[in-house]
Amino acid sequence: MNWNDKLDETRKGLRNLNGAIPEIAAAFGGLGKAVKEGGTLDFKTKELIALGISICIRCEPCISLHVAALVRDGLTREELGDVLAMSIQMGGGPAMMYAAKALECYDDLSAAA
Q: CATH number, domain at 81?
């Protein structure tokens, strides 16, 4: 399965979950909107932070969602490399394995963009 398929599967699962718990989903969505629109950091920086956390906590669906947002925002492979390096420094060997997944995801999604 390629990363576009994984991303579609993740979004489908989230739509299903949102239908099952609409009030919670709306509240969580509101939190996400407030965090991304407020504060002093720009959207890209916040998504880079979220990607680094996703790598360190080893959440593959999160990686796909944040990489997709960053690809739409014009992330370069070099910028991604900095986030991957920082994630590995903070998360060690397991983060290195998920950093590799994030790079594969970026390559896949950016080629399709």
A: 1.20.1290.10
